Amino acid sequence: MSTPLAPLVDAFNRRITYLRLSVTDRCDLRCSYCMPEKMEFLPRKDVLSLEELHKLALGFIDRGIRKIRLTGGEPLVRRDIIELVRALGRKLGDGLEELTLTTNGTQLEHFADDLAAAGIRRINVSLDTMDAALFQQLSRRDRLSNVLRGIAAAREAGLKVKLNTVALKGLNEAEIPFLIEWAHTHGHELTLIEVMPLGVVDEDRTDHFLPLTAVRESLEQRWTLTPSEVRSGGPARYVEVAETGGRVGFITPLTNNFCDGCNRIRVTATGQLYACLGGAEKVDLRAALRSDDPAARLAEGLDLAMRIKPERHHFKIERGAAPAQPRHMSLTGG
Ligand code: SAM
Ligand code: SF4
């Protein structure tokens, strides 16, 4: 019997069990807070092949990663994505406890059944607005109806759909209660997210930064919110809404730091491991994978990642300031 490999524990004694794996940095939307209209994508030759992504994920599972979220960019625009989902789905119950994905939903109606058949049980779909004109303004594409069909198809396929909404001052701010009501009526949980200063975009994010402390106060005027003990293993903190019978999550990187309980690492589509979403610390796992001794180099790379993972991020939103990191969320995997 082979000896189990050492689990991943960082210098702050945090056990790392969750991998967010970006399978592409490309996307069919151009959300204005995420990327500029003229986004430059990575050269295809630099992106990991399907086999490399699979091998990498297996290496992480051997080191105690129990949950993998496929993300991007938009994971469902990668042509061979479903093959990766099927291959990783076969590890469920055999080292891997959960396989999931975050999507913008535009292609979901074509993939929902296959995702469910491969063993995916829950997915996150990003939905910032249900107003077609605002959707087009925010994402620079006219795809709201595709997204709504995608969410319905996922539901019909038996997938549990959690909605993610970036709270944006003066844009979807007034619509937030309606989005929550709609989500709860359709059996979805909804998590609100504060916009983060990652990568240069065509606007100043300060203009639309909406602290969730303010959103929560305004929701409290309307509804009875009870803090929930439920934890999803991530940074969200939840409240139950008495009037709708549903749950709302708050992800507050700016107004309430949550790094103490961090259990995750991120790998880009080119195999760069980022130890923190808000930090520059990284390890080149593609070089490890393409070396003469991938298993040994990968093990060294993961050990190094545990030593350099920072204690916390230092996000600040300040008018005119450079982003906390030059890379966009679509590269590191949101
Ligand atoms: N394309 C997929 C999607 O939109 O769900 C997956 C990748 S996207 C980068 C993941 C999440 O990050 C989305 O919910 C998106 O709204 C969020 N996001 C992107 N840029 C962000 C930023 N600068 N601050 C906060 N959230 C951001
Ligand atoms: Fe694409 Fe997701 Fe970024 Fe929007 S948030 S541009 S859907 S990667």
Q: How would you sum up this structure, described in words?
A:
The chain is of the alpha/beta class and 334 residues long. The chain has a single domain (18-332), classed as Alpha-Beta Barrel (TIM Barrel), CATH 3.20.20. It has ten helices and twelve strands. A twelve-stranded mixed β-sheet has the order 7-8-9-6-5-4-3-2-1-10-11-12. A hairpin with a 4-residue loop joins strand 10 (264-267) and strand 11. Helix 1 packs parallel to helix 2 and helix 3 runs parallel beside helix 5. The longest helix has 15 residues, at 294-308. The radius of gyration is 19 Å and the shape is globular. It starts with 17 loop residues before the first strand and ends with a helix. The mean pLDDT is 92. Bound molecules: S-adenosylmethionine and iron/sulfur cluster. S-adenosylmethionine binds at residues 27, 33-34, 71-72, 74, 102-104, 126, 164, 166, 193, 195-196, 198, 329-330, 334.
* Helix and strand pattern: EHEHEHEHHEHEHEEEEEEHHH
The number of distinct β-strands equals 12
Q: Kindly report the spatial arrangement of strands forming the biggest sheet.
A: 7-8-9-6-5-4-3-2-1-10-11-12
Gyration radius (Cα, Å) is 19 Å
Strand content: 15-25%
What best-fitting shape do the alpha-carbon axes yield? globular
